[in-house]
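Reviewers of the previous submission asked for a worked example of the structure-prediction workflow described in the proposal, so we include one complete record here. The input consisted solely of the amino acid sequence. No template or homolog information was supplied to the procedure at any stage.
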Amino acid sequence: MTEAIRLPDEPEPTDDGRCIKFPADKSRTRKPNERWELTPAKFLNPTELSALLVKAEELFVLGVARKRKSLVRDSFLIHTALLTGLRNSEICNLKVTDLRIGKGESHLIVERGKGGKTRAVHIGKEYKTIVKRYLRWKMEVGELSPDAYLLRTERSEKFCISALWRRWKKYCPKTLHSARHTNATLLYKASAHNLRLVQKQLGHSRLSTTQIYADVSVEEAHEGVCAMEKLARTIGKTSRALSGREANGVDVEVRDA
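From that input alone, the workflow returned the following structure tokens.
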């Protein structure tokens, strides 16, 4: 199994999900004025995303059938990371009382986001159905209470960030934070480039931070280049046709563009 990537000053998880402290690692610190770019390695491509969502459904079915709680929780972790775009710490801190999925509501409350800020994160119909299914399962296994964390381990009432990363790395070679980038990228495209919506969902204090998702993606660049080549071929064919008509003595009217 691939070793989980650790963040500086984050506790190292034990096999049961509990955490122990390890020395800070400053090697991952970004240099001053170093420009951060959203490269393909930092979010999931369509094939990776599709495979991971399928895996999440398989984990839930298998976990329920074999009564393996860890698999059901892993399924919910994958769905939550990909479909909400929450930060790692926000997933860890998510409680049953933070859900607003009744009486026509479809959002969750992040009580302790970055900078201690509170925000509402809207959720879609699919994730709302997944949450209700998960809550029914938690009730059946005796884990459901108003103040309960949505994700817990066998010995601890909640996950620490590094333990969460370890579970994620069992199914995806890219970082857990890549799920947040994937969610934001898809939301930006699906909302007709509504950057303000993406900013509110992610909890960015500055719109300039969200602006990275408005950059040209690899897929868009490829589509644009292919369209350019198609246009070039069309122009080439038209030019050759006109040259042929001129060679045959056919008058060609040229108009100013």
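The chain has two domains: 12-24+40-212, 216-249. We consider this example representative of the routine output the project will generate in years two and three.
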